[in-house]
Amino acid sequence: MTRECRRAFGPATFCALALLLVVLPLAADTPGRLEVRGDDGRLIAALPMLEGEAWCLEWNHSVAGFPVLDCYRHRDGRMVLERSHLPDFAAGLDHIPGRGRQVSDGEGGYWIEEIDEPVPGNRYRLRVGSPEVNHRLLHEGRRLSLSDQAAGERVTIHLQTPATTP
After folding, report:
1. What is the pTM of this model?
2. For every residue of 4-51, which 3-state class applies, written as one string?
3. Pick from 32, 66, 164, 166: most CB atoms within 10 A?
């Protein structure tokens, strides 16, 4: 920026504009990171998670054995629960009226669409199920079993972004 421009805008405005020109592109290009950590701080899984990317937590229903999905997206620096897939109205599975919109999956189950709930603090706790339950992360066509690495353990699933990284 030229001296004339700095004089016209003043030193404080010049510094603020310069900072925005540097920080905004970095924030937009900085990837998030989805981490799963045990209570002892042990890193169990880490996935790069760019703004706009989605992932799901999938597990087998403990009674019926079919897969259930909760799907999230990194949206504006936040972990947002977007939708869930429930193949049946088995024990503990139901649509709560006013929380998303239930639509048929065409195979006897249903999706709950448009949940759009930000997860407080971009993190939540999970007790990882046995190998039969097989909690797993799905991202970009890959499945990562948390049960293979931490069955029976309490873990924290955390989307770290530049604004939320401790």
Report:
1. 0.76
2. HHHHHHCHHHHHHHHHHHHHHHHHHHCCEEEEEEECCCCEEEEEEECC
3. 32
